[in-house]
Design a protein that fits this description.
Blueprint: H1 2-18, H2 20-59, E1 64-67, E2 73-74, H3 78-82, E3 87-99, E4 107-113, H4 115-118, H5 135-138, E5 143-147, H6 148-153, E6 161-166, E7 169-179, E8 192-196, H7 197-203, E9 209-210, E10 212-217, H8 223-233, E11 239-241, H9 243-286, H10 288-296, H11 301-345, H12 358-375, H13 377-384, H14 394-399, H15 403-421, H16 431-463, H17 469-480, H18 482-520, E12 525-529, E13 541-542, H19 544-550, E14 555-567, E15 573-579, H20 581-587, H21 597-606, E16 610-613, H22 614-620, E17 627-630, E18 637-645, E19 654-658, H23 659-665, E20 670-671, E21 673-678, H24 684-694, E22 701-705, H25 706-749, H26 751-759, H27 764-806, H28 816-842, H29 846-851
Parallel strand pairs: 4-8, 5-7, 15-19, 16-18
Antiparallel strand pairs: 1-10, 1-11, 2-9, 3-4, 3-10, 5-8, 6-7, 12-21, 12-22, 13-20, 14-15, 14-21, 16-19, 17-18
C-alpha cells in the first residue's frame, strides 16, 4: 500500500504540477459541469421546499382536508364533517391569493379561519398579543393580521392600513396584529395574512361557501377510516384527502419540468468527461516511456491502473470542490429563473433562501469525482497494456485506433436511438426518450474518428500543391493525432448538438405558438383581473360587468369566459372553462385536430358537449366522442367530447363547455375574463379607456389589446426557456475548453518540430496560422457533425420527450438562421480557444525548442 501511495504521489502529482495549465483547464471543465448540475438541483429543491413549507404551514396539524376545487362547497356541509366519528376538531377555511394595491408585484396569501378554533390547528405567535385574545379579530370586519416580516419590509405597523384587491374591488384593512416569523407566518416567505372567516367570506364574495375544512382527529382515530366515512356522507364533488397528498400532487405536477432541467444540466458534465478523457489520454501517451520503465522496475498493472485512475480522481475532486463553490453562487440566479417559470406555468411561489444540505454537496462531489474517474478508465487500461520493454513513441498508440470499428458502433447506437424513440413513457416520464437522446449523442461521438479521417484526407488532397502551406500542414496534423483530435471534436459535437436541438425545439415551439395565437386570439380587447398572471390568484369578475361592457360605444360583441379548477375524481384537478360557443363559432377560430371549428362549436352547444385541449386528451387518454365526467354540486355528469383542440397556455389541459350549460350545472355567477370584439372603425385605445372609466372596480382590472396580449404570451414563453439556453451555452464553453486543452498538448508535444520549422524559415506568423488552422478545421467539422446530430436530436425532443412530458404537439421548423449563428459561434469559439496555444507556439525560442525532448 505504501508503494502504491508513493507511486501515485510521484507519477500523478508530478504530472499535474508539470503540466499545470492543461490540468487547470480540465479542472475548470469539471467545475463548470458540477456547478450547473448543483445549481439546478439546489434551485429545484428550493422551489419544492417552498411549496412544501407553504402547504405544511397552512395545513398545520390537520390530518385530513375536505375540499372541492376552486369552486368550494356549501358551508351547510360543515356540521356533518364536524360530527363525524373520529373528528376531534374541524376548522372551516377560506384561502385566497391576491394583490396588494400600490405595491407592484406584491401578493398575499390571505387565510380566513375561525379564529376561536384555529389555534389548535395552526401555530400563531407574534410580538403583538392579538392572537392571545382572538376575539379582537371578531369585533372589526376589516381587521387583519400580517406577518412581522412583510410589515417590516413595507413600512407597516400596528393599526396602520393596507389596501388589497378583492373580487368587488380594492378594500382597506386595518392591521390589528403582527405574527412572528414562526409556524404559519413562514408561508410564502412571509407573504401571508389572516382574517376571521366571516369577514373573509364577505370580502372575497364567498358567503355561504367554504374553500376547505381542515380536520384534526382523535388520538386513536384511523385517518383512512375517517376519510372513508366522510366520503360516504359528502357529495361526490367534495374530496377528502390527507394534506401530504397535496404535496404529492404538486411534486408530480413539477416532475417533468424539473426532470428536463436536470437532464439538460447533466450535458455540461457529460461534455466535461471528454475533457478529462483527452487530458489523461495525452498524459498516458506522453509518459509512455516512463510507464514502461516503471513496469520494468516491478510496478504491477494494477498499480499503474490505480495511478492513472487516481489522477482522474484528483482532477475530479479539485474540479468538484471548485464546482460546488461556483454552483452555490449560480444557484441564487438560477432560482429566480426557475421560480419565475414555475409561477408562470404551474403555481405562484415565493421561494426562500437556497439551502446547502451536506448530502447534496456530497452527491455533487461524488458525481464530479465519479465522472472524472469513469473518464479515466480507458486511458488507465491503455497504460496497463504498456509492457516493460515498450519505449515507443506516442504515434504507436494512435495507430491502434480503429475508427471504422467505432463508426460501426456509432451507427448501431443511432439505430438503437430510433428504436428507443418508439417506446411509450414510463410512469408519465419519457425515460426511453432520454435513452434515445443519449444513444444518439454517443453514436455521434463514435462516428467522429472516421469522419475526421475522411475530412482530413479531403482537406489534405484539396490543399496539396497550394501555396497555403500552414493549411496543408494543419490538415496533416489532424490525422497524425487522430484520437485526441476526435475526442475534442466529439466534445464540441455534443455541446453543439444539444444547443442546436434545444434551440430548434424552442424555435419550433415558438413558431407553433405564434401561428396558434394569431389564429385563435381574435378578440380586439381582453378584460381581466390584474392578477391574471399570478397562478392561483383570485380572478373572478362579477357577471354584471359583461352587460356594462356591452353598453360601451364601439363594442360589437362580448364573450365572458369562466375558468374553474375542479376535481377530476382521481386525486388531481383540471381547468374547467365556460364560454359562449355561439360567439366563439362566429368570431373565433379554435384550432381543432379534426373538423371545422364553427361546426364543432355549434354541435357542442346544441348537444351539451365539451371541447377539450390536446394536453387534456393526452393526460386522460381520451379522444373525440369519449366521455368526460364532471362533478358539479349534486351528482356527477358525463359529457361527450365534441372536439380536441390545440392549446399552449394551460399546462395540464382544459375542458370547455358552453356557458349556458355551465350555469345549469354550477351555481357560479362569476367570470374570469371578457373577450371584446369592436365595431369596424372603433378606436381600441379610446374604447379601452372608456371601459375602465365606467367600471366601478377598474383599479383592479386590466384591458389588454390584441397585440399586447399576444406579446405577453410570447414574453412568458421566452422567459420560460431562458434558463435552457444558458445551460447549453455552458456545455459549449466546456467543449471550447477541450479545443484549448488539445492545442496546448499539441504545442507541448511538437515543441521540437516547431523549433525545426522556425529554423528552416517558418515565421512566427506562419506558426500562428498553422495552429489556428488546426483549431478552425476542428471547429468546422464539429459544426457539420454537431449541426446534423442536433437536428436529429431535435426530432426526439419535439416528438418524443416534449410530447410525452407535456402533451403538446409542436410543428418542426428548420432553424436555418440559428444554425448559421451557431456555426459562427462555434468557429469563433474554436479560433479563440486556439489563439493562446498558437501565440505561445509562435513565441518559442528556436534554440530552446530544437533542444526540447
Amino acid at each position: 500500500m505504501s508503494a502504491t501511495y508513493h507511486l501515485i504521489r510521484l507519477v500523478v502529482w508530478r504530472a499535474l504540477s508539470r503540466d499545470w495549465l492543461r490540468g487547470l483547464i480540465t479542472v475548470l471543465g469539471v467545475a463548470l459541469g458540477v456547478a450547473v448540475v448543483l445549481a439546478i438541483r439546489l434551485a429545484n429543491d428550493a422551489v419544492l421546499e417552498s411549496f412544501r413549507n407553504s402547504l405544511d404551514h397552512v395545513a398545520g396539524k390537520s390530518r385530513l382536508q375536505v375540499s372541492a376545487g376552486e369552486a368550494g362547497f356549501d358551508e351547510r356541509l360543515f356540521p356533518a364533517i364536524a360530527k363525524t366519528p373520529g373528528v376531534s376538531r374541524a376548522v372551516p377555511v377560506i384561502q385566497e391569493i391576491t394583490r396588494v394595491a400600490g405595491q407592484t408585484g406584491e401578493v398575499l396569501m390571505v387565510l380566513g379561519v375561525d379564529v376561536l378554533a384555529d389555534a389548535g390547528i395552526r401555530e400563531y405567535r407574534g410580538p403583538t398579543p392579538e392572537m392571545a385574545d382572538p376575539l379582537s379579530l371578531l369585533t372589526e370586519p376589516n381587521a387583519i393580521l400580517l406577518t412581522e416580516r412583510f410589515a417590516g419590509a413595507h413600512g407597516l405597523g400596528l393599526n396602520s392600513s393596507i389596501r388589497i384587491f378583492t373580487p368587488s374591488g380594492p378594500k382597506d384593512f386595518v392591521i390589528r396584529g403582527l405574527l412572528a416569523d414562526q409556524g404559519v407566518a413562514r408561508t410564502m416567505d412571509g407573504q401571508f395574512a389572516v382574517l376571521d372567516i366571516a369577514p373573509a367570506q364577505l370580502h372575497f364574495a364567498k358567503l355561504g361557501r367554504l374553500d376547505r375544512v381542515d380536520v384534526l382527529l382523535d388520538g386513536q382515530a384511523d385517518p383512512d377510516r375517517v376519510a372513508s366515512t366522510l366520503r360516504q356522507k359528502l357529495p361526490p364533488d367534495v374530496s377528502v384527502e390527507r394534506p401530504e397528498a397535496r404535496n404529492a400532487q404538486v411534486e408530480q405536477m413539477l416532475a417533468s419540468f424539473q426532470l428536463n432541467l436536470f437532464v439538460l444540466s447533466l450535458i455540461a458534465l457529460f461534455v466535461g468527461m471528454f475533457l478529462v478523457y483527452n487530458t489523461l489520454s495525452v498524459s498516458v501517451v506522453r509518459r509512455r516511456r516512463q510507464i514502461g520503465i516503471l513496469r520494468g522496475l516491478g510496478v504491477s498493472r494494477g498499480q499503474v491502473l490505480l495511478a492513472v485512475a487516481a489522477e482522474g480522481g484528483l482532477i475530479g475532486l479539485i474540479g468538484s470542490g471548485v464546482g460546488v463553490a461556483m454552483g452555490v453562487l449560480l444557484a441564487r440566479t438560477t432560482l429566480g429563473a426557475v421560480s419565475r417559470t414555475v409561477s408562470s406555468l404551474y403555481a405562484f411561489i415565493r421561494p426562500g433562501e437556497v439551502h446547502l444540505p451536506a448530502t447534496v454537496i456530497m452527491q455533487a462531489i461524488l458525481l464530479g469525482c465519479g465522472t472524472a474517474v469513469l473518464s479515466s478508465v480507458l486511458p488507465a487500461l491503455e497504460a496497463t497494456a504498456i509492457t516493460p520493454r515498450e519505449t515507443l513513441a506516442a504515434a504507436t498508440l494512435e495507430r491502434r485506433h480503429r475508427p471504422w470499428l467505432l463508426a460501426g458502433g456509432g451507427l448501431g447506437l443511432a439505430l438503437a436511438a430510433f428504436g428507443l424513440a418508439q417506446a411509450d413513457p414510463v410512469g408519465g416520464k419519457p425515460l426511453f426518450g432520454y435513452g434515445a437522446a443519449l444513444s444518439l449523442l454517443l453514436g455521434a461521438t463514435l462516428l467522429c474518428p472516421a469522419c475526421l479521417l475522411v475530412f482530413q484526407r479531403m482537406l489534405a488532397a484539396g490543399l496539396a500543391g497550394s501555396r497555403f502551406l500552414p493549411g496543408w500542414m494543419a490538415a496533416g496534423n489532424l490525422g497524425r493525432s487522430l484520437r485526441r483530435n476526435a475526442v475534442t471534436i466529439g466534445a464540441m459535437v455534443v455541446g453543439l448538438a444539444m444547443l442546436v436541438s434545444v434551440s430548434t425545439m424552442i424555435q419550433s415551439f415558438r413558431t407553433t405558438v405564434e401561428v396558434w395565437i394569431h389564429q385563435t386570439i381574435r378578440a380586439d380587447l381582453y378584460l381581466s383581473r390584474a392578477t391574471r398572471l399570478i397562478k392561483g390568484a383570485d380572478l373572478r369578475l362579477p357577471a354584471g360587468i359583461l352587460e356594462e361592457v356591452w353598453t360601451v360605444p364601439g363594442v360589437a360583441e362580448v364573450d365572458g369566459f369562466r375558468g374553474l379548477r375542479v376535481e377530476d375524481g382521481r386525486g388531481g384537478r383540471f381547468l374547467l372553462g365556460a364560454g359562449d360557443f355561439d360567439v366563439m363559432a362566429r368570431r373565433g377560430q379554435v384550432l381543432f385536430r379534426r373538423g371545422d371549428s364553427a361546426g364543432i362549436l355549434q354541435e357542442a352547444r346544441a348537444r351539451d358537449r365539451l371541447i377539450v385541449s390536446e394536453t387534456f386528451a393526452e393526460r386522460y387518454h381520451l379522444g373525440e366522442g369519449d366521455e368526460v365526467v364532471v362533478r358539479p354540486p349534486g351528482q356527477p355528469v358525463a359529457l361527450r367530447i365534441a372536439g380536441v383542440y390545440y392549446d399552449y397556455t394551460t399546462e395540464g389541459g382544459v375542458a370547455v363547455m358552453d356557458r349556458g350549460l355551465f350555469r345549469r350545472l354550477w351555481n357560479d355567477p362569476w367570470l374570469t375574463s371578457i373577450l371584446i370584439y369592436l365595431r369596424p372603425g372603433a378606436d381600441p385605445q379610446a374604447t379601452r379607456e372608456e371601459i375602465l372609466r365606467r367600471l366601478p372596480a377598474s383599479e383592479g382590472l386590466v384591458v389588454f389589446s390584441n397585440r399586447a396580449l399576444k406579446a405577453r404570451v410570447l414574453e412568458i414563453f421566452d422567459q420560460t426557456f431562458a434558463i435552457t439556453y444558458a445551460l447549453e451555452v455552458v456545455a459549449l464553453v466546456v467543449a471550447a475548453l477541450g479545443i484549448l486543452n488539445t492545442l496546448i498538448a499539441s504545442v507541448l508535444e511538437r515543441t521540437r518540430e516547431i523549433g525545426i520549422l522556425r529554423s528552416v524559415g517558418f515565421t512566427r506568423g506562419g506558426i500562428l496560422r498553422l495552429l489556428l488552422c488546426e483549431a478552425g478545421f476542428m471547429g468546422a467539422l464539429a459544426n457539420l457533425l454537431g449541426g446534423l446530430a442536433g437536428l436529429l436530436l431535435s426530432l426526439i425532443l419535439i416528438y418524443v420527450i416534449n410530447k410525452q412530458s407535456f402533451g403538446w404537439t409542436i410543428q418542426f421548423t428548420f432553424p436555418a438562421r440559428l444554425i448559421l449563428e451557431y456555426a459562427v459561434l462555434t468557429l469563433s469559439a474554436s479560433l479563440a480557444a486556439g489563439s493562446f496555444p498558437a501565440w505561445r507556439a509562435s513565441r518559442l525560442p528556436i534554440a530552446e525548442a530544437v533542444r526540447y525532448e
